[in-house]
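Researcher: For the annotation table, I need structure tokens for Lipoprotein NlpI. Please keep the output clean. Sequence:
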Amino acid sequence: MLKKALRTGCMLVTVAYLSACASTSNQAPQTVVLAQPLQVNYQSEVALARLGQMLNSGEYNQQQMAQLYYERGIVFDRVGLRALARFDFNRAIQMKPDFVEAYNFLGIYFVLAEEFDSAFEAFDSALELAPDYSFAYFYRGIALSYANKPELAVIDVDKYAAEAPNDPYRVIWRYLIQTEANSAEAQSQLQAAIASYQNEDWAWNIARLYVGELSPQDLINSTMDQPSDNQTLAEQLCEAYFYLAKLAQQNGEHQRARSYFKLSLANNVYDFVEHRLALLELKRYEDQ
């Protein structure tokens, strides 16, 4: 494992505070895997410069400008400049009021700011324009969950998961939100999905964690069990630590959950839903 760690540029660290903060439980992994945090790459910097020049050139009509603002917003979001991204998504909608994808992104930002009424309005606008736009159902489900409306959230994530039952992330989110709604079917549906649809996608390991087939340490180790570059490792670790945090929350181990959310953020995978929501979860802990 050490040889593989050196090849991918990651670090293996025995972290006492994770096990010490919940010493009565055997859930905590003894080893924390860390990737080299992702940095803003050259391509993103060039894209931002090029899009800025195009927006300032005066050569494009309003529809084209809306698309350019949206594309720059995507790049801003990818590098973690969320205030600038939100501004660009707003500009895109002002210039193109039927811009479905921009409404969806704006809704995500409203969720992160806990402006839930505005988030619902944005997602509803996206779905009025494109009733089959599945990502709006997903993020509206998340918004409903964080707004303490889990029964309504289940309706949206059920629809989202049903569209691609072989997608482990859809299965996992359906389980998480069903659990929040105290659904007795959550565990059985998750087990059935694993039995019926499990494929080679690494994320099925997260589903197996929630049904007890893998331990937290097994999940962390699984990120090292396949050849990968640092980008892939960072992305998987961002996800793994986030979902370990959600498991810790289910078990009432909130100090450990906070530590896992911080580890999820450590990889700088800014455009992943897990990174976004880890920030929101930590903010909520601070507010409490």
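Researcher: And a one-line annotation?
Model: The domain at 1-34+215-288 is CATH 1.25.40.10 (Serine Threonine Protein Phosphatase 5, Tetratricopeptide repeat).
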